[in-house]
Amino acid sequence: MPVHAAPNPFSASRSRTALRACAAAACCGLLLSGPAVATATAAPVAPARASAPAEVSGRGTLISAERLYTLTTPRAVAAELDAAGFPGDTARHGVVAYRLVYRTVDAHGLPTSASGLFVTPLRGERRLRTVSFAHGTGSHKDDAPSMQRAAFVSAPAIAHAAAGSAAVAPDYLGLGKGPGLHPWMDIASETTASLDMLRAARAFAPRTGHVLGHEVMVTGFSQGASAALGLGRALESGQDRRFELGALAPVSGAYDFGSAELPALLAGRLEPKSSVVYAAYTLVAFNRLHPVYDTPGEVFRAPYDSTVEALFDGAHTGEQLMRGTPGALDELLTAHGRALLAHPTGPLAAALRATDAVCTDWTPRAPVRLYMASGDEQAVTENTEHCRTALAGKGVSAPVVDLGAVDYGGSRHLGSNVAATSAVVRWFGEQSRR
Fold first, then answer.
1. How does DSSP assign 289-326, residue by residue?
2. 154: region left, alpha or beta (phi > 0 left; psi from -120 to 50 alpha)
C-alpha cells in the first residue's frame, strides 16, 4: 500500500486552542454548535447579474452576495487560522470573504436555493485557479462555512485563498441560508449544490476584480470527502464544460459507508458517542429521502423514539444533540434498528450503494491523493483503503497520505482536517505548476 507520511503541523499552543474550541462547541466528531462560534457579519454587495447560459437557465444563478470580512495581510490570516487551531504557514495574501446565495435543486430535483462561502486573495492575480472545499458533518444550520468566521468548517477555504486561489465552500442544502432540512450523506444533492456554487462563484468573481479559470482543484473532509469525489465525478463527466477537474484530495472520508463504516460502528470500534450520533443521523436523514422505517419506534428505543428526529432539524446545536442522545448504541437502537444497519435491505441498501459508488463507478483522469490519519476514531481507515483499492482496479494510482497521530480537541478525525489543510494547499500548488 503506497502510504506517504505527512509532518505533524501542531504546536502545543495550537493543540490547547483546538481543545478549547472543541470544548466550547461541545463537539463530538464534526458536530459543531453554531451559536457557540462567532458568526460572520455581512455587508451587502450590489445585486448580481447572471450571464452564463447555465446561470440564466436557473441552476447557479446568483441570488445575493454579502461581503463577510476582510483579513488584510498574510499575518492577519495566519492569526485567525491559528486561533481556530489551524496552521497559517501557507498564507501569502490577505483575503476577502463573501457569502453567496444561489439557485440550485433539492434532493428531488426541484428548484431551491443554497448558500456558500467564496474567498478570494487580496491583490492576487486577476485570473485565479479555483479550489472547492466540502466541509464535514454538522447538526445546526450555522455549522456551515459561510456562517462562521475562521472556524473549523471555514478555515480550509481561507487557507486556500490566502495561498492564492479562489476558494469555494458550499454550505450544502439545508445548512447556512438554505431552506429546509439537510439531506446528510446524499451524494447527488451534495454534488449539485457544489457544482452550482461553482457557477455562482464564477458569475460573481468579476465583481471582486478576478476571473475564475477552467481548472478546479477539489478537496473535502469526512462527509465532504465523499462530496468532493461526487463533484470530481461530475466535472470529469462534463456536466459543465466551463470547468475541468485539476486534482482531487479528499480527507478522512466514509467512502464505504455500508461495508466499512457501519460495521465498525456497530462492532464498537469507533468512539461510542460519535457512533450513537452517526447511527441516529443515518437513520433519520436517510429516512427523509427513502422509506427506511414507518415510525421512529421501529428503530429507536424509548424515550428517544419521540425526540431524536427533532434533534436533526437544523435548529439544534451540537451541545443539544450531545445531551439529547444516549452514550451507547444499545440505549438508542431497537433490535430492528441495529439489524437494519447491520444488514441493510431495500431502499436503505440502494441508498448506501449510491453513497458508496464515489470510488467505484468512475475512473478519475486527474491526479488523486487520499488523506487519512492513523487511529481515526470516527472514519475507520478501511474506508480509505477500500477507495484506493477500487481506484487501483481501474488503473488509477491514488497514493494514501497518512497524516499520523494528529489531534484536535482529543480527536484524530478532526485533527486530520487541520493537518491535511496545509498539505493539500502545497500539493495543489505543485499540480498547478506542472
1. HS---SSGGGTB-TTGGGTHHHHTSBSS-HHHHHHTS-
2. alpha
* CATH code where residue 182 lies: 3.40.50.1820
d(CA 19, CA 24): 8
**Residues 331, 410: Cα–Cα separation, whole Å:** 24
Q: Is residue 365 domain-resident?
A: yes
* pLDDT 10s digits, 397-424: 999 999 998 899 999 999 999 999 999 9
Residue 48 binned pLDDT confidence (cut-offs 50, 70, 90)? very low
In a domain, 244, yes or no: yes
Q: For residue 420, which of 130, 138, 222 has the smallest C-alpha distance? A: 222
CA gap 413, 405 in Å, rounded: 10
Q: Which residue has the higher pLDDT, 21 or 402?
A: 402
pLDDT tens, 297-315? 999 999 999 999 999 999 9
| Domain coverage including residue 18 | 3-256+354-432
At 99, is the secondary structure helix, strand, or coil? strand
Q: Across the chain, what does the average pLDDT equal?
A: 89
- The candidate with the shortest Cα–Cα distance to 359, out of 200, 268, 233, 237, is 233
What are residue 133's DSSP bridge partners?
219
